[in-house]
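[stage:ingest] chain + small molecule (zinc ion)
[stage:ingest] validated
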Amino acid sequence: MIVDAHCHMWMEEWVEKDMLKVLESVKESLGLEDLGNLMKGDVERLVAEMDEAGIDKAVILPLDFEFLYEAGDLTYRDYNDRVGEALAAWPDRLIAFAGVDPRRGKAGVLELRRCVEGMGFRGLKLWTIAGFYPDDDAYYPLYAEAERLGITVMVHTGLGPGYSYLKTCRPVYVDKIAVDFRGVNFILAHVGNPWVEEALAVAMKNPNVWVNISAWQKGHSLFAMGLYQMLSQARLMHGGVHKVLFGTDWPLFTEVYSQREWVETVRGLEQPMAMQVMGLPEITSEEKEMILGGNAIAALRL
Ligand SMILES: [Zn+2]
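[stage:predict] done
[stage:export] tokens:
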């Protein structure tokens, strides 16, 4: 089974005002000529590309960006509803997370409950680039609700697009809540890049924390050794790669690697010469399959 543990969904007509700035910034960082496919985040395109890549299931992460950006007419509840509609149409292919900023307090708790109990969502997405530290005690009622519901929490860690905050995105801010909410599984998106060691440390220490390799495509295209190095380090620190999940951040990096190409990249990873010289063991094909899907079974309670 192959699971893409990090995808988004949006329609061209939702992308307006500040959300457009985010995509413009991604476009610039990838050196693209136009917004083109970055705007096309509809579920039909996603499922077609999943089919092409042999991906069985994808995690969909709506974003509650209202605390950071002017959001146009689409509220965070509307956004969750759109994802709920997609889930209803593709229940076997999608795993939906609710986009809720924890600063919403009680309303956020109720929105999470509505998404999980009313629409069958299985997780919560925290978009820390909107400027909150996830381990604030004020948000504990939200995590208590996540624990009660038995869902997974995906936390953005590491670099984000322009017009967003970086300082709240360090992986270490997930450590305290992972300890205090042992019944909740946490996933550190993007392996916290550039705080990769910090993300691996948080995942190593806490049995309920995983990382995902989404948004590593551009870096990999420039310096192919980085991904292999990270996986070797995870193996050395954790005794295996069982905490590493596959992910793309679809549709943001399809111009660098399509979903299919990113799956093939992981499957085809070969140990760089410099690491062979160091005598490090190779990542086995069994381990690659664990990253592509096996590990997600525990992280997402599939
Ligand atoms: Zn993302």
